[in-house]
């Protein structure tokens, strides 16, 4: 999509991908707002929208992450469709059936991991069935059968949509299953990554990886409201304050926020690159936060203007923290660590920061500007040679054809590196470019002309 759009717009492919990713991310924000609004009213929808829009994990990945960002949006749209279908149980409208089909197609057309949301939907539907049986409804099974029958066209629509987005999946009936089996195994050469100050092989990362990373990367206000919202949704369902269909929809959101994390901790795949593979959990978590926030404002409203004012000040103060992180760290906001964890200064020596190597964009631009300002030209008959510590293909794209990138040449003109654990951060050479945020090194270029090639890598980099 980005490659096609780049042919129509006056931007580079890099810029077009950021634009398209941002637009897709906005669709995810809209879907999150709609879920919150449907389940908790306009205040809940607004709070959910604000929580997600100011979440550096979501905001950063929707621009730079061409895989997990769109998948998060697709999963949110699918969750909205599931919530809408359960809320209209047992007679969903035609529009809802079509919407569920579109959601299935978008989800599975992005990744087979969308099966998680379908599992969530089935479990939520079973809770509706159990509640109706406990209420003594004699037509419970007939209502369930009618609902399933009415949803069958959604499966057909979803299959066609999946084929449009992922043609290989429909070449053979079992291709999605083959893909699920293939991608459930770690097929790359293992590398080591930094977690809690120690290096672990990514297949052997501790099971606590996900809860720890969510605890230190999500904004404080989102963490507090999301956890309270999950507990609030379960509590209201157990007290029978809503009909079974609404309870089922609420339970679907709770499962969408927590079940993938629990499943991953049990299945224990390879964990790496922070939370980029779990961005899709942020929208339902924001919805739960919206429900808790709306309940909190209702409680404050019942006690007068002073309480409402105090609640608004606390909420705005909580939102100000991640907003300031986004502004100060841009465009590296996906590497944000929350304030209570110590921020990026703490994380620099303990966790992976710029796992996308985005610093190479600014580093390369700054190097070219520096060489132009110094009126330097490469030696006759060749290009500038740049030793790279980090993803070499990204560096080559950003530097352009007038540079040659390498990692194993005996001589080079410059050394360009990421400020990460596998790159040596102190070399006895003049520094031409230094990219920092909050005092933390993200990227650097050394002038090593006429010097022996320094050893940049402290160990093999991530693949």
Tell me what the structure shows.
It is a single chain. With 463 residues, the chain is an alpha/beta fold. The chain folds into 2 domains: 2-341, no CATH class; 360-447, no CATH class. The chain has helices spanning 2-8, 13-40, 42-53, 56-64, 68-87, 94-110, 115-134, 140-165, 175-183, 209-217, 220-238, 244-267, 282-301, 305-329, 343-347, 359-373, 392-399, and strands at 192-195, 198-201, 384-389, 403-406, 414-418, 431-437, 440-447. Strands 4-3-5-7-6 form a 5-stranded mixed sheet, covered by helices on one side. Strands 1-2 form a two-stranded antiparallel ribbon. It is globular and about 85 Å long. The mean pLDDT is 91.
Query: What is the share of helical residues?
Result: 55-70%
Q: Report, as a whole number of angstroms, the end-to-end distance.
A: 25 Å
The sequence of SSEs as H and E is: HHHHHHHHHEEHHHHHHHEHEEEE
Domain count = 2
Q: Strand order within the widest sheet?
A: 4-3-5-7-6
Principal-axes shape call: globular
The pLDDT mean sits at 91
Strand content: 5-15%
- Count the E strands: 7
Rounded to the nearest angstrom, the radius of gyration is 25 Å
Q: How many helix segments? A: 17
Unreliable segments of 5+ consecutive residues: none
The helix-and-strand class reads: alpha/beta
- Main β sheet profile: 5 strands, mixed
């Amino acid at each position: 999509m980005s490659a096609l759009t780049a042919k129509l717009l006056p931007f580079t492919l890099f810029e077009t991908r950021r634009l398209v990713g941002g637009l897709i991310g906005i669709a995810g924000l809209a879907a999150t707002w709609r879920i919150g609004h449907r389940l908790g009213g306009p205040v809940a929808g607004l709070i959910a929208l604000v929580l997600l829009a100011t979440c550096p994990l979501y905001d950063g990945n929707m621009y730079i992450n061409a895989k997990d960002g769109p998948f998060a949006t697709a999963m949110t749209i699918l969750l909205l469709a599931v919530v809408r279908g359960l809320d209209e149980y047992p007679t969903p409208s035609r529009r809802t059936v079509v919407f569920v089909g579109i959601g299935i197609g978008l989800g599975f057309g992005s990744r087979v991991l969308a099966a998680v949301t379908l599992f969530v939907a089935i479990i939520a539907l079973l809770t509706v069935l159990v509640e109706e049986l406990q209420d003594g409804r004699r037509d419970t099974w007939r209502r369930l059968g009618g609902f399933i029958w009415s949803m069958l066209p959604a499966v057909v629509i979803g299959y066609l949509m999946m084929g449009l987005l992922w043609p290989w999946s429909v070449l053979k009936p079992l291709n999605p299953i083959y893909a699920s089996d293939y991608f459930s195994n770690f097929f790359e050469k293992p590398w080591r990554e930094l977690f809690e100050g120690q290096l672990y092989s990514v297949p052997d990362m501790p099971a606590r990886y996900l809860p720890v990373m969510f605890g230190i990367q999500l904004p404080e206000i989102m963490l507090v409201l999301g956890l309270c919202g999950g507990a609030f949704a379960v509590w209201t369902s157990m007290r029978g304050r809503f009909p079974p269909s609404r309870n089922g929809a609420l339970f679907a959101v709770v499962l969408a926020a927590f079940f993938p994390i629990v499943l991953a901790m049990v299945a224990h795949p390879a964990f790496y690159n922070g939370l980029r593979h779990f961005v899709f959990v942020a929208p339902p978590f924001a919805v739960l936060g919206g429900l808790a926030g709306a309940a909190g404002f209702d409680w404050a409203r019942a006690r007068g203007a002073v309480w409402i004012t105090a609640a608004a000040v606390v909420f705005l103060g909580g939102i100000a923290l991640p907003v300031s992180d986004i502004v100060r760290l841009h465009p590296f906001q996906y590497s944000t660590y929350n304030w209570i964890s110590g921020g990026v200064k703490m994380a620099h020596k303990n966790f992976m920061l710029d796992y996308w190597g985005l610093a190479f964009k600014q580093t390369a631009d700054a190097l070219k500007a520096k060489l132009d300002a110094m009126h330097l030209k490469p030696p006759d008959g060749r290009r500038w040679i740049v030793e790279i510590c980090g993803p070499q293909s990204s560096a080559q794209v950003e530097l352009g054809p007038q540079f040659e990138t390498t990692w194993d040449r005996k001589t080079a003109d410059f050394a360009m590196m990421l400020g990460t654990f596998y790159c040596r951060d102190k070399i006895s050479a003049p520094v031409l470019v230094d990219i920092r945020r909050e005092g933390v090194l993200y990227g650097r270029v050394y002038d090593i002309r006429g010097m022996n090639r320094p050893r940049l890598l402290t160990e093999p980099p991530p693949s």
